[in-house]
């Protein structure tokens, strides 16, 4: 049995408190799994007095997390403060400078400064564990870095934000509007008072940036990711999706294409029978495609103190055993520059919802705009609005029309929609949702 | 960059040939991921001349795999011969005796001799990698041993045999009999000429034995597993399951209970909306329940040369990096003796299909037999056979009746069925299928 691994934990929110709880209540089993005792020696948070349901009396307490890093009784620094800069960044830099391995759940920090931090870690021969940074308790990082080592990864598709998935699931199951479900999510604590980071797709983008780097061996570039959120998804779209055999999910998608890496966050139509479509509520799901393996999908809790802490513990055990792999799977100097494929180059099927003036020639005009750009339609759904049930002939009023296209280029479909709009056939901006065949 | 890791591969079937192919075509990426070059130096198989789609000229060839182990240019021995004893066992023992780490896909060997081999490996400070032994390309072993290290695992539920899942999926989708689907599986190469090992549930039992040991920290005991196969599943059961919102899947289930570890392989009713129920065809799925994490489910290809080889490669990379964890997660001496919970102690819901004589009092008698043992019925489905559609009153002919019980003990439901049989109410042996609530 080796000497104890002594942990310093910066940040005692729900995840930090759960880590303390798990380490304390599983001492003997952790010792056996880690091959040596694991013990917490120091912690840091803003308010010592706050009731966290844990006893911190046995730990050295630091108001300043950077000071904690310097504690000679801390071997490994666990950063659970959060945020792309500020205290979290200072703690991680201080740890690496002091020759101490880092474990973090901080997706924003990695998405922003990941490559530089990896360079510092590598130069110092240290590890940065971040299983908890993506998809909470689901072991997506270890799977990508270690289990898929023999694969050329060709694609990743993931539901990476529980808040959005909760809202979309509620909208579908209860036939409620986006606004109603968002308010409910806020009431339940699943969404922040300012929900932009989640519903705007930015949280998903941070996580996707990390997965993309691991999957394709590229430097992280969070800004290269195309981002659409779910705020424009209407109940009408949810209903139409259902009718056509799809569900709408906010996905992070990354794929190798001829023109580079296509990485995007967008609401997508996914076939109902896929595992991703079946992933409901606050759960996350990540599907990996590898050339040797084929597709493997992991489903589980993507957030929550104790699930996320479970991932932190896995990193602690790896650190205790001295297991170390390059931060992003490859040595930093081998990471390729990110070759971005523009969203305009995206090729796939599309769901298009139009509000079409019910006038002679309108539909023919729309069909021609599509045909002119070689866009083939797989299906067309038109329901007359209920108050028009008995209206004979053309009423002139806008009618919802849903089109599903076969695979086409984003440039083509956008050009077709512009032409349709310019011709005055539609009453509102068209809704465009990419179809993910999975 | 360290010195090369030199591999000796015993067994060049579909998995072995795929390992050779992947190592040869990913040399540079594997070197980066492993931190050192990985190279194949020796191979062994029965027939050197056989066309395997790979070139073996560059490797030392051994007709005798045990002789290959002794080759001084072999650092790690990869055993892909298969079988619980014979050559496979000899190779693994020779490797451990020679101080060489082992990687194997051999579930039968581990289920039978796992504890003893782990003891030998531990004494010699060697690893035995066996990611490929369970669920093919899905990283279930690493997830259990490493990612769930901070959890007390409470349960495992898995679809671990692609042959059975293929047959059950076909039966449901095409409304065909077990025999027809088995013949089809044999024609497609998914099932052996003698399918007993698969359809009898024994293959699933070997895999479950390994997972159970990892999950609960117990010595492997394949004989402690209760096994029922799928040969008695009729199309009638599949249809009734569908009507009641379930699918029938052959599951490996292991749970901690008050009376010990309940480990069993049986066809089970699973709710249609669960990920496990959605896993169709030759795919596998494994759901883990951990106290910190909650439930995580992994879905992917459970067989096939290249998917399984992907898991072998993951073990090779771990070996190259010198990453070593105890074979079954804990040091051998810390593994507990397996405390078996008898199947009679199982508690859960049941699906019961009876062929009931359509006579006065029959149904009342059945209901009383259930009530006498405090068994509550959740639903009762009775469809008159179509040729009896217009028969008024009791015909005396046997009619299918399906009952779904609330949670009850196996002893109680079995006693009730014995009483029903003894009372002469039913024309055939009852069909009993456990319900897995997931």
Automatic annotation (TrEMBL), chains A, B:
GO terms for biological process: methionine biosynthetic process; threonine biosynthetic process. It comes from the Bacteria. InterPro entries: ACT-like_dom_sf (IPR045865), ACT_dom (IPR002912), Asp/hSer_DH_NAD-bd (IPR005106), HDH (IPR016204), HDH_cat (IPR001342), HDH_CS (IPR019811), NAD(P)-bd_dom_sf (IPR036291). NADP(+) binds at residues 10-17. One of its GO terms (molecular function) is homoserine dehydrogenase activity. Pfam families: Homoserine_dh, NAD_binding_3. Pathway: Amino-acid biosynthesis; L-threonine biosynthesis; L-threonine from L-aspartate: step 3/5; Amino-acid biosynthesis; L-methionine biosynthesis via de novo pathway; L-homoserine from L-aspartate: step 3/3. Its EC number is 1.1.1.3. L-homoserine binds at residue 192. NADPH binds at residue 107. Belongs to the homoserine dehydrogenase family. This is Homoserine dehydrogenase. The lineage of its organism: Bacteria, Pseudomonadati, Pseudomonadota, Alphaproteobacteria, Hyphomicrobiales.
């Amino acid at each position: 049995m080796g000497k104890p691994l002594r942990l310093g934990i910066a940040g005692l929110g729900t995840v930090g408190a759960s880590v303390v709880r798990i380490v304390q209540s599983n001492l003997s089993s952790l010792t056996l799994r880690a091959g040596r005792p694991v013990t917490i020696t120091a912690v840091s948070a803003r308010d010592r007095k706050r009731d966290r349901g844990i006893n911190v009396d046995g730990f050295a307490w630091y108001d300043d997390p950077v000071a904690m890093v310097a504690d000679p009784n801390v071997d490994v620094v666990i950063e659970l403060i959060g945020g792309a800069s500020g205290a979290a960044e200072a703690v991680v830099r201080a740890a690496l400078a002091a020759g101490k391995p880092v474990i973090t759940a901080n997706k924003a920090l990695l998405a922003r400064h990941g490559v530089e931090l990896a360079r510092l870690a590598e130069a110092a021969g240290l590890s940065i564990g971040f299983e908890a940074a993506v998809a909470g308790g689901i072991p997506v990082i270890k799977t990508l870095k270690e289990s898929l080592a023999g694969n050329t990864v060709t694609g990743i598709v993931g539901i990476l934000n529980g808040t959005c998935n909760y809202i979309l699931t509620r909208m579908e199951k209860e036939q409620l509007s986006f606004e109603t479900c968002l308010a409910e999510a806020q009431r339940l604590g699943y969404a922040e008072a300012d929900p932009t980071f989640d519903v705007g797709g930015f949280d998903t983008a941070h996580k996707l940036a990390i997965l993309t780097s691991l999957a394709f061996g590229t430097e992280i570039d969070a800004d290269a990711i195309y981002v659409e959120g779910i705020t424009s998804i209407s109940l009408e779209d949810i209903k139409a999706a259902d009718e056509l055999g799809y569900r709408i999910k906010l996905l992070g998608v990354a794929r190798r294409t001829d023109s580079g890496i296509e990485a995007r966050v967008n609401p997508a139509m996914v076939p109902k029978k896929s595992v991703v479509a079946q992933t409901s509520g606050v759960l996350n799901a990540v599907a990996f495609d590898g050339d040797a393996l084929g597709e493997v999908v992991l489903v589980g809790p993507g957030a929550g103190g104790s699930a996320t802490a479970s991932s932190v513990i896995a990193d602690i055990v790896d650190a205790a055993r001295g297991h170390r792999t390059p931060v992003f799977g490859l040595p930093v100097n081998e990471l390729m520059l990110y070759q971005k494929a523009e969203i305009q180059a995206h090729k796939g099927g599309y769901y298009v919802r139009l509000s079409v003036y019910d006038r002679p020639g309108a539909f023919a005009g729309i069909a021609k705009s599509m045909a002119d750009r070689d866009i083939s339609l797989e299906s067309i759904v038109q329901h007359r609005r209920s108050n028009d049930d008995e209206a004979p002939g053309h009423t002139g009023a806008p009618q919802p029309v849903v089109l599903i296209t076969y695979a086409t280029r984003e440039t083509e479909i956008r050009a077709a929609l512009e032409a349709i709009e310019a011709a005055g056939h539609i009453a509102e901006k068209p809704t465009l949702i990419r179809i993910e065949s999975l």
